[in-house]
Amino acid sequence: MSIQSIVELVAGLVLLVLGAEGLVRGAVRLAAMLGISPLIIGLTIVAYGTSAPEMFVSLQSSLSGNPDIALGNVVGSNIFNVLFILGLSALVTPLIVAQQLIRLDVPIMIGVSLLLQLLSLDGVLSRADGVFLFMGGIGYTLFLIWQSRKESNAEVQEEYAQEYSFTTTKPGLQWVINLAFIGGGLLLLALGSNWLISSSTALAQSFGVSNLIIGLTIVAAGTSLPELATSVVASFRGERDIAVGNVVGSNIFNILAVLGVAAIASPTGVQVASTALRFDIPVMIAVAVICFPIFFTGNLISRWEGLLFLGYYAAYTVYLILATTRNETLPFFSTVLGQVVIPLTVATLAVVWWQDIRRSRRSAKAE
After folding, report:
1. Is 359 helix (H, G, I), strand (E, B) or coil?
2. What does R_g of the chain's alpha carbons equal in angstroms?
3. Would you say 313 and 80 are in contact if contact means Cβ atoms under 8 Å apart?
4. DSSP of 163-228, one letter per residue?
5. Comparing C-alpha atoms, which of 210, 191, 350 is closest to residue 280?
6. Are 231 and 247 contacting, i.e. CB atoms less than 8 angstroms apart?
């Protein structure tokens, strides 16, 4: 393991974060100047802009013949977004979950996760699969715009207005500045993704692990730093709809647009490793599914549920480390996790869900 690889890795992550920040800042202000509503800006431009590192890294990986990093980056980022980012954000403050997320966006996130598993069964995301996914991304974006125009919740609209509205007395100068932010952000994203991929590949070789593992862990966590910053800062500010909506929107975008573009760009598509098909993608699906009962209970992600998310991300990471190192404690760890921890979690969530339904029924009768 060389010092140069570590320096490139850290520098690549820094450039990705700075590039995403510049891109989002310029795009948000330009959209506001064009009269686009703050709600649409928050649901589309911000969610997609914070996923720009995933887009650049997966696209660059696909073009350079590293499909494991391209896939691992998306799958690992989606797992990290829900378990780590929402977990940490809920520890800051319990997160309110909008009804639209429960009724529409979370089922869509579950659906596209299952779609990825289905399309991957043949071991490759072909160009045709990529076109199908990307068209789905366009359709989802149009749906968000249509849905946001129907949003009648004044609190939700005010929350997004406080964060994403923008006025200026010097429009000409602001156009130049914002375009410079966008151009500079794209340049930093391209350079950062190149450094991150080359250093990650070198680290994988030096540690004797697969590119998939590096993509699922270091690369996935690194490219999710913009989502982490957006959601945690939103939690501190009390903008709890933004904290949750950013994660769910980014996860959907990662599968539909990021993997879609990566598959289209590669002549041979994105190869799907058998280990990802058997374990990592099913974990991503399970993480998406578990959002539904947790979000449904009181329309809230409580602090104990946030701690539960963080605990499961720690368990997932430990499992990857034990499996990669072929540690002899892996069978025991898997048994405890599969036969004790997960069943207890399911039983607890079922009880909490049932109690919430009973409270709702009693409240309805009282009214």
Report:
1. helix
2. 20
3. yes
4. HH----S-HHHHHHHHHHHHHHHHHHHHHHHHHHHHHHHHHHHHHT--HHHHIIIIIHHHHTHHHH
5. 210
6. yes
pLDDT grade for 138, boundaries at 50, 70 and 90: very high
Q: Please, are residues 66 and 212 in contact by the beta-carbon 8 Å criterion?
A: no
CA atoms within a 13 Å half-sphere pointing along the CA-CB vector of 47: 31
Phi, psi at 123, each rounded to 5°: 85, 5
Relative to beta strand 270-271, strand 124-125 is antiparallel
Smallest CA-to-CA distance from 359 within 293, 294, 295, 297 is with 297
- Is-contact 34 168, C-beta < 8 A? no
Locate tokens 């959907």: which residue? 252
Ordered structural domains, the chain, with CATH: 3-327 (1.20.1420.30)
- Inter-CA distances, 144 with 43, 140, 147, 253, 268, Å: 7, 6, 5, 12, 32
Give me the phi and psi of 267, to 5 degrees please. Answer: -60, -30
Are 231 and 62 spatial neighbours (Cβ–Cβ below 8 Å)?
no
3-state secondary structure of 301: strand
The CA distance from 113 to 118, in Å, is: 9
Per-residue pLDDT of 264-277, as tens digits, reads 988 888 999 888 89
Q: What is the full DSSP assignment across 304-326?
A: HHHHHHHHHHHHHHHHHHHHHHT
All residues at 6 or more sequence positions from 316 whose CB lies less than 8 Å from its CB, including other chains: 79, 83, 283
224/30 Cα distance (integer angstroms): 24
- Cβ-count burial of 190 within 10 angstroms (0-12 exposed, 13-18 middle, 19+ buried)? middle
Which pLDDT tens digit goes with each residue over 88-112?
988 888 887 777 777 788 899 999 9
pTM of the model: 0.85
**95 SS3 class:** strand
